[in-house]
Amino acid sequence: MRVFLTGGTGYVGSAVLESLVRGGHHVDALVRNGEAAAKVQARGAHPVLGDLMQPASWRAAAVTADGSIHTAAQSGARARQVDEIAVGVLTSLPPKDQRFLIYTSGIWVLGPAPSPVDESAPLNPAELVSWRPAHEQRILETASAGVRASVVRPGILYGSSRGIVGDLLKDAANSLVRVIGSGENHWPLVYDRDAGELYARIVNTPSASGVYHANDEGDEIVNDIVAALGDHAHTQPSIRHVPLPEARKKMGPYADALALDQRVRSTRSRALGWAPTLHSVAGNVARLFEEWKRGKAA
After folding, report:
1. Nearest-CA neighbor of 95 among 76, 67, 120?
2. Residues 28, 29, 32, 33: is their CA dihedral positive or negative?
3. I want to staple 58 with a disulfide (CB 3.0 to 4.6 A). Which of 21, 50, 68, 221 is the partner?
4. Which among 227, 219, 225 has a CA at the least distance from the CA of 186?
5. Alpha helices per DSSP H over 23-123
6. What global pTM score does this model have?
7. Exposed / middle / buried, residue 139 (Cβ in 10 Å: 0-12, 13-18, 19+)
8. CA distances from 175 to 164, 171, 244, 281 (A)
9. Between vectors from CA 215 to CA 214 and to CA 218, what angle results, nearest 5°?
10. Which tens digits make up the pLDDT trace of 182-212?
């Protein structure tokens, strides 16, 4: 199939791109410059030069495709605005037989979940992503127009050198790790390649639609992750627990998101036959340090 992909050089998008290309799909990946174009081309995709904020630069590629996958994510104050533009265009494409649309949300829309929750749970989003449920709903409503619409909520990704866990690996290597709050909260996590495989499975399953969680279900406690990182670091790092009120002053609502206690299940994803290959950060620290080193050198 021909797939239009946003965010193909991002953390989630890179994993999705690799899974789709490996599965024999033609991927048109939106990129902003020649350097990014060369990266996606080297990995088997066709670059589409454009900017999410300028739909005229990429809408034609989305119209031509059999389906679109939106993984691009802007950080900071523009996050909602950029996502709103992309969602607006992707949900208003002309009808096409068996067109699919996959939107990337995240587990933070669930809010606190000290007891396990799956895709059927009501939403109680963290302030940082308070706008995301409305975007999820807009995507899912395209089903009434014949679109095979899905929302994927990845856990906190690990693997390679990027993301929240990548930052922890870097901090451990630099001998100082900061933990927001008590560190006794659970993080829902997923290996980046496993997340990519879920997207490919949704694309390849004609009946797949609705909400899917991408989470390894390891229910890892942040302090346990940090302790494992310290045990494998070149030198034992200092660990500082930053009280949440103090963290909020520097990080805003991002601090509250990192302090969420969440135990998340991927019931509908497993029903598709998706099965994570890794189930733990703490149990794979040596491997993850090696991936982080390779990613940093790339």
Report:
1. 67
2. negative
3. 50
4. 219
5. 34-42, 59-64, 79-90
6. 0.97
7. buried
8. 17, 6, 22, 19
9. 170
10. 999 999 999 999 999 999 999 999 999 999 9
Half-sphere exposure (Cβ direction) of 26: Cα atoms closer than 13 Å: 9
Nearest to 46 by CA among 29, 34, 33, 22: 29
> H-type helices in 190-284, by residue range?
192-204, 222-232, 244-251, 253-258, 267-271
* CA dist., res. 149 & res. 141, Å (int): 8
What is the H or E stretch that residue 15 is in? Answer: helix 11-22
Residue 29 has φ and ψ, to the nearest 5°, of -105, 125
pLDDT band for position 54 (cuts 50, 70, 90): very high
Evaluate whether 45 touches 5 at the Cβ level (below 8 Å): yes
Contact 53, 72 (CB under 8 A): no
Which residues, listed in sequence order, are joined to residue 101 by a DSSP beta bridge? Answer: 68, 149
CA distance 179 to 114: 19
CA-wise closest residue to 71 among 132, 135, 139, 152: 152
Report the residue count for the chain: 298
| Burial 212-236, CB ≥16 within 10 A → b, else e | bbbbbbbbbbbebbbebbbeebeee
Task: Give the pair of three-digit tokens for residue 47.
Answer: 């670059």
Q: Categorise residue 69: left if φ over 0, alpha if ψ from -120 to 50, beta otherwise.
A: beta
Do residues 243 and 180 touch, judged by C-beta distance below 8 A?
Answer: no
250, with CB counted inside 10 A (0-12, 13-18, 19+), is exposed
Task: Give the tens place of pLDDT for each residue, 136-184.
Answer: 999 999 999 999 999 999 999 999 989 999 999 999 999 999 999 999 9
Which pair of structure tokens corresponds to residue 202? 């949704």
CA–CA dist 87, 75 (Å, integer)? 16
Amino acid at 136: E
